[in-house]
Amino acid sequence: MNQIIEYLPFIIPIIAVEFILMIVSLVHMLKHKKFRFGNQAMWIIIVVFVQIIGPILYFTIGRGEE
Amino acid sequence: MKRYVAFTKKEFLEQLRTYRMLILFSVFFIFGLMSPLLAKILPEILSGMDLQGMIITIPEATAVDAYAQFFKNMTQMGIIVILLVFGGVISNELTRGTLVNVLAKGLGRHTVILAKYTAMVVMWTVALVFSGLINQGYTMYLFDTSDISNLIFSILCLWLFGVYLLSLIILSSVLAVGSFGGLILTVVVLGGLLLLDLFPKLEKVNPIYLSSRNMDFITGVLTPSDALLPVLITVILILANISASIVLFNRKRL
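YS: structure for the whole thing
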């Protein structure tokens, strides 16, 4: 338990950034519903379960043109 | 000049709206934070493992390990992120044809290249400084940083390499066709440079030098004067890349 408290200054920012990325990409996905490849279910799974890398992949190669 | 400023502003707005800025800053934030943490907990994880009687002595982690992690992350994942984030900056506009309108209204083609390059370099600079400051803060929190030398110079080398990489992306995007052509060409050139780095005689005329010897500067194995030639060569290459991009873009049919 002591160890967890020692590393809290690291864990909290990392989790915060992960959540911000996840929520921003989910919101974007639900608003636009266009993908360069794959479908919505696949991208939701990638974004929610692959932390950090998932949202990056969505924004760089996954999202469709507007 | 007015047009250049306006187009640069448009570039920043585009980076913001396409979420590229968000991605760049969150990834670099995580790099800055994770590097000291990994350096700190890796020995603890290793010593906690059941090695069935095998004994491994692991030296206590120091600030040098934290910087080793930082530069490893930056030169591997960081470069991949830069390529993904900035790879499409010119290719996308060319394939979508959105540049035709502004060019027809009299915006100079060199202005487009210079404004895009400025926006990319500024973003990379701010992101690197941001990441470096976070890394420095957390490293000072966890370790004693007294045996670190040439830190600023080492980061400057990494910065210059990034600026070179961005100029390479611009040149490749002007040369190649399609949305991913520029990206692929950049990766091919980088691969070639990495291969050239295997020959000790050529290492000093190779921009890769600036992104692969960072730890030697920090530990004091190399001094800044060793990097004089690579820095000069890289600056010349950056100027050559940008002027070649402008010349080729002037001739390119949109």
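YS: worth flagging: Chain A has one domain: 3-62.
IM: good catch. Also Chain A is about 75% helix and 0% strand.
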